[in-house]
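Below is how a single chain appears once it has passed through the pipeline. First comes the sequence as given, then the structure the pipeline wrote out for it. We keep one example in the README because the format questions we get most often are answered faster by looking than by reading.
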Amino acid sequence: MKEVKVGLLGFGTIGAGVVRVFQQNSQVMTDRLGASIKLARIADLDITTDRGVQVEEGVLTTDANQVLTAPDIDVVIELIGGYEPARSFVLKAIENGKHVVTANKALLAKYGDEILAAAAEKGVEVMFEASVGGGIPVLSAIKENLCVNRFRSIFGILNGTCNYILTRMTDEGADFAAVLKDAQDVGYAEADPTFDIEGVDTAHKLAILIGLCYGTRVDCDDIHLEGISQISAVDIQFARQFGYKIKLLAISKEVDGEIEARVHPTMIPQNAPLADVDGVFNAVRLVGDFVGPVMLYGQGAGMDATASAVMGDVMSIARNQLTGAIGRTPAMAYCPTAIGKLPLKAMSDIVSRYYLRFSTVDKPGVVARIATILGNYQICISSMMQPEGHAVDTVPIVIMTDDAREADIRSALDEIDRLDVVHEPSHFIRIENTIE
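Resulting structure:
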């Protein structure tokens, strides 16, 4: 029986999950592939810590070159994470004729063009299903089953840490800081959670999705980015009263040849399918011109779910290798010659509905002054709330707008914040009422 040999770089949590797949489901893989897949070598700086899985003698090494240059290794799995040495290792594996599987969304978002160009020149494949959505097969769905569609929009809940925090805040009325600490204590958030809570991780994933859906390159630095650290329990309570939930969404829309690319907290109707995606789960909702709306939902992270996606890519490469079909499916869903550079729509030109919250002096005429300024910028009020039970001499005013231009909202809020009756900087959250 033919055999495909795999080398693994990085023996952390996901690496241990990959070993578990080999230990528990080798026969399943053989039966589906018609050949055997062998984990031949694992390289990590630490090969003494117990990962809870048994590894055959001679498989572990601290020398990455025993994976990258070994003539018997067919596929290299990169699970180191980060930019370096992951980038150098992946390029070296490609230079040595190895196919590559990675879960490293940051690496792909920043150096994807370089890596894929090197792979094309060497005639090897790079697959990265686990980089977006963990165990959810969203990338393969775009590249295969949905490939005849022009995509109109992407909406994604792509970070389990943020979704867990917002779910806890919604269900329990808890403050952000307290829930973040709990998330760190149970392992759902890193000791330094910045990449997660400030939306950077989500932006990396959105950049990959945009490339696959629209056939265009987007720089992560050009994606508008806001995290969840400024979301308060008060905002979540008001959202509920208006019939909304707050989620950190990755959003992209293609309209008239322009691409929107943004990551920010968003109010969505409580009856929207994405509103039911809670805890550490992820979901991606795509709208194609022929298929219509499609939502894929599942575990966006974790040892087993991510290892499942990684090994699914290994199986795909093994099938292509055994049948002489390497390169059958373009890595970015479009042939390289068809990938262009669509213009990004300026955030100032985005049109949305908005939730606005003000902290003002409790006296007559304040609402009228705020409404006048909004009207001067052609911002229409659809509803308003001025709750009771507020602090002495201070009242929160909450306004929901009709569709408005982002630049007008920001200009109006700048002017309102200069009023002598406003105590604190105003706060706004965008609303997506029409997620298809």
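The CA atoms of residues 155 and 251 lie 5 Å apart.

See the next section for the split statistics.
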